[in-house]
């Protein structure tokens, strides 16, 4: 954990378009952006949501049968972890001595996940986060993450966390990261302001969520959004109707200080890289006023219940203890087999007592009054 000693280092928020849906070309561009950030002395580069192989914009532009071929292209170019793609990202981080946080579409079997990948400056993957709840029609393409990926990682740069896009509107999820004492938070987003009608609303929600998290969490927030290029629009807009629903541009990226003030940006509507210095003393400044999970909290009145068990499709019945665990990823605090057996025994004893009482008092057997 980084101490509050006034040490400073530079971070980079990357705002750029992918090459839809081309894994190799998007990877090549990502490496170039990582190299550029490192050449400007950044020790951390944050790249947008699903940067490799690109965000599946087509899900918002028509019925599923109409984009089946685009789905296959996107699916086939999604990233397995580990793979040659992740090896190349790790080598770029190692070679340039830089931490990298990047959004990918992770393919695991026949399901994809909206994933953040964390790589340290030694070229090692030290964590990943799968988006807990795909937003709206994203559920057609991405599966759900689980609580086992809701972590804060202790690194040389400080305690690091991350969320994907509108996960930032899930207040209990954000609070779970704040409770784990994150110091630098990586927010990866799609640049949805490229969709007509969403220009102001999406930029506003991004700014509100990012700055509020920095304020309440007393942490730095590096917000990285994607843009969409003219070439990508031409790829996606195959009908006159679709051409009305997407345009080049988009993006709202910024680097935000504890408390919510903006250190760099916002960068809007174009590609670029923002830079700012991280000074841990700024966290200490905010600690004077409040601590949402410490001296300015009341866990005896309101507290958070967090389930970090990994979701499992199949469980072995050879381990009797596993029977007491939930088969439903949304269920928590299921009773153990021993507790169930004890409850059954208690009910049997109660029934036996009632039956004995009724047999000893025949008039009760004839009574219409419910007991």
TrEMBL record:
Coiled coil: none annotated. Keywords: Hydrolase. It comes from the Bacteria. InterPro entries: C-N_Hydrolase (IPR003010), C-N_Hydrolase_sf (IPR036526), Nitrilases_CHs (IPR044149). Residues 9-280 form the CN hydrolase domain. GO terms for molecular function: hydrolase activity. Pfam families: CN_hydrolase (PF00795). Belongs to the carbon-nitrogen hydrolase superfamily. Nitrilase family. This is Carbon-nitrogen hydrolase family protein. It comes from Niallia endozanthoxylica. The lineage of its organism: Bacteria, Bacillati, Bacillota, Bacilli, Bacillales.
């Amino acid at each position: 954990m980084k101490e509050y000693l006034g040490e400073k280092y530079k971070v980079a928020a990357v705002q750029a378009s992918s090459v839809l849906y081309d894994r190799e070309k998007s990877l090549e561009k990502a490496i170039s952006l990582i190299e550029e950030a490192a050449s400007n002395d950044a020790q951390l580069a944050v790249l947008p949501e699903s940067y490799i192989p690109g965000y599946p914009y087509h899900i918002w532009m028509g019925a599923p049968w109409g984009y089946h071929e685009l789905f296959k292209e996107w699916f086939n170019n999604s990233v397995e972890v580990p793979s040659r793609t992740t090896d190349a990202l790790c080598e770029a981080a190692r070679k340039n001595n830089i931490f990298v946080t990047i959004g990918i579409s992770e393919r695991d079997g026949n399901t994809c996940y909206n994933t953040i990948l964390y790589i340290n400056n030694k070229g090692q993957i030290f964590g990943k986060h799968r988006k807990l709840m795909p937003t709206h029609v994203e559920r057609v393409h991405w599966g759900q993450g689980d609580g086992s990926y809701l972590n804060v990682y202790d690194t040389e740069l400080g305690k690091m966390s991350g969320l994907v896009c509108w996960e930032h509107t899930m207040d209990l999820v954000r609070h779970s990261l704040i409770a784990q004492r994150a110091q630098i938070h990586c927010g990866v987003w799609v640049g949805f302001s490229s969709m007509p009608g969403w220009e102001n609303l999406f930029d506003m929600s991004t700014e509100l969520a990012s700055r509020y998290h920095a304020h309440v969490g007393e942490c730095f927030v590096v917000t990285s959004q994607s843009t969409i290029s003219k070439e990508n629009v031409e790829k996606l807009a195959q009908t006159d109707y679709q051409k009305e629903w997407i345009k080049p541009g988009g993006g709202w990226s910024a680097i935000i200080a504890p408390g919510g003030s903006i250190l760099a940006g916002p960068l809007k509507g174009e590609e670029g890289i923002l830079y700012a210095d991280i000074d841990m003393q700024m966290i200490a400044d905010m600690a004077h006023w409040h601590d949402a999970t410490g001296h300015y909290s009341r866990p005896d009145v309101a507290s958070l219940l967090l389930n970090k068990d990994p979701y499992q499709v199949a469980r072995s019945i050879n381990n009797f203890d596993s029977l007491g665990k939930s088969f439903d990823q949304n269920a928590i605090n299921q009773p153990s087999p021993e507790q169930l057996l004890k409850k059954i025994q208690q009910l049997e004893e109660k029934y036996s007592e009632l039956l004995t009482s009724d047999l000893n008092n025949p008039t009760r057997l004839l009574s219409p009054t419910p007991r």
